[in-house]
Amino acid sequence: MAGNAEKKQATKNAKILKEIHLISLGVNVITLLIIFLFNRPSNKKPFFFFNIPLVICELIVEKIGRPRFALEKVSGGRIVPKLVSSGEDLSQSGLTEYLFDVIYFTLIQNIVLVILGSNNVWYLSLVIPAFAAYKLYGLFLGGRQLLGGGSDVKGEESASASKEKGQSKRQQKLEKRGQKVRYR
Questions:
Q1: Can you tell me the distance from the alpha carbon of 47 to that of 36, in angstroms, rounded to the nearest whole number?
Q2: DSSP string, 24-50
Q3: Is residue 147 in a domain?
Q4: Which of 114, 129, 106 is nearest to 39 (CA)?
């Protein structure tokens, strides 16, 4: 028997998935109608090519977030669904948040494509890998500082700042000793 927390997460995930699929369906249908009825823009291939990340991200979110049920017989011969897995929490940060960002960004590009009628909108897709590189760079720097690598610029700045405050040498040593990482 699934707990209340799992049931709440399952209903929340199902609601989020339904909303994202309906929004995506609506925007894409309107975009396709405008593209084919008004023949604006004339080249339709970029639309299909640049919507591949949207489809992939939606499939991943669907796979990890969809609650799974199994049919179970209960007394009286009735068959009722039993919650097997509530799926991953779709409101968590990290990779899931990035997937939703890609989905929403692509849908916004589709709306701008309809408004402007130009395939130049797809150059905005370069923002997605640039944002990923920015996040990875921050993650790399955080890990590097955590492992004690990199320069000691911050330590030098704090030592010079403490000298400016008028601390004695003893106070500076105690502060420096407190900043050191201790392994046990």
A1: 12
A2: HHHHHHHHHHHHHHH--SS--HHHHHH
A3: no
A4: 114
The helices-and-strands tally (H runs, E runs) of the chain is 7, 2
Q: How many domains does the structure of the chain reveal?
A: 1
Domain limits at 76? 4-125
Q: For the chain, what's the residue count?
A: 184
> What is the tens place of the pLDDT at every residue in 143-173?
777 777 655 555 555 555 545 567 888 888 8
Residue 69 covered by a domain? yes
Residue 38 lies in a domain: yes
Amino acid (1-letter code) at residue 68: R
Residue 93, in any domain of the structure: yes
Terminal-to-terminal C-alpha distance of the chain: 43
Nearest C-alpha neighbor of 16 from the set 83, 78, 87, 80: 87
Collect the ranges in the chain with pLDDT lower than 50: 162
Q: Is the peptide bond before 81 cis (omega within 30 degrees of 0)?
A: no
Which segments of 82-126 does DSSP mark as H helices, in order?
Answer: 95-116
Is the pTM higher than 0.90?
no
